[in-house]
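Q: What does the predicted 3D structure of DUF3808 domain-containing protein look like?
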Amino acid sequence: MSFLAEVRRGMRRGKKRLFWLLFPTAFLCTSLREPLPESPPASTLTSTQARAYAEVLNMRPAAARPLLKGADAGSLLVQDCLGITELLVSQDARQYAAAVQAQDKRLALLEKQPAGPLQAYAAAEIRLHQAAAQVVFGHEVQGAWSLRQSYLAMQQVVRRYPQFLPARKTLGMLQFFIGSLPESYRWFLKLLGLPGSVEAGLHNLRLAATQPNDFQLEARLILALLEETYYKKPEAALALVQTLQRQQPQSLLLSYLLISQLKKQHRTDAALVAYRARPTGPDYLPLPYLHHMAADLLLYQGQYAASQRENLWFLQNYQGQHYRKDAYFKLYLATWLSGAAPAAEQYRRRIGSEGRTVLEEDTYAQRFVEDKQPLNARLTRARLQIDGGYYREALLTLDTFHTTATTPLRDRLEEPYRRARALHLLGRPDSARPLYARTIALAGTAPYYFAPQSALQLGYLYQAEGQKKAARTYFQKALSYPRHEYKNSTDTKAKLALKELDE
């Protein structure tokens, strides 16, 4: 059977979500250990191209485009960085065909140019951009093939030009993501023939992040975000983004990353300050997802009307299919918690008919509709307060929740889990630990995320205390649950934590 036929068969098995593990909010195996000298001048962007690339990262296309008149490797590469940024930010399917066609033209022009590290890197990077576009707009088979081509080409660049650091940035990122895939996706690795390695990926990323090159900023950000997400290093990632954003206040990308990091670390008040201080104006790409994030932050604070306004703006101005179910779910929560039952019901109905279920947030929203089990208002408020960093307020809310003989299992699991999270995040692990254990004991094989997340958090607690045997037991426990809303991300984190225990 041909490679493409095998991939198509895998698609029919429902594995589409896999590709989103390789392109996380984002897009945006060799490993030499000796120190690498700086790349030669012929392997770098010109000063004009570097200025254009900086404006791409600032998300100011009008400032970047006039600087990219040439057809050399550097100009073609930055042109494509600009094109993929505009496409993935807008998520406008009407632009997809033209964008892919422009990528093919750039690749054809690169084939006619003299071989060199920048020329080879540009071709492999543009092919990766093409893979991202194909996957985002539902062409998973073509995206798989483009990903394979990009990976193998980038591997060749590193082998042929071991001193060219930008290639190590991209190869390292791909090695890490493929190496961190859950065991259930081994079929994908076998089909693509791509060797993933967390260790080699981190090594290559660190080389690109710690030594001067044209794409060092990008490498530093990717490395910091990976370590924050998978290795529990939130302070380092936030400190880096805060420093860079202070140095470059004109960068919308850095403002977005700052808001995102503050939100992930439950610092709602600071995240809203950063959101309101972000650079705006006609020179910048509209970034609708920022409004969706702001809607979440306002929901955490109980500002329901303001949260609704931000999500409605997002839905009206966003052309993509991802996050739409999540936005309608958050609109449902805002109206339901504010007592507007008719409006809440209208938003609930839209969840099932809008968007796609590729991302975990959208899957969770869709499952809420299909489950048909009403949410508990007290538990929901407590969850939002915890997400927002209002842990003491959440504990007070949880104190008003009482179970009865008719309380659904989901609610009986959620209460101790929420209480454990609040206590854990307040720096009281000894109080959180028995509540996590209680959640696991009550859950059995129930298909909710409370037990696997409790196991993951217990693993982290025991790992921090140096109790490797207990940590390993709980990380393996987290992996053992066959079905729940956040299985992909939970399994990836548990798998990487187990690797770390073996080091």
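A (community wiki): The structure tokens above were generated from the sequence. Residues 38 and 163 are 7 Å apart (CA to CA). The domain at 391-502 is CATH 1.25.40.10 (Serine Threonine Protein Phosphatase 5, Tetratricopeptide repeat).
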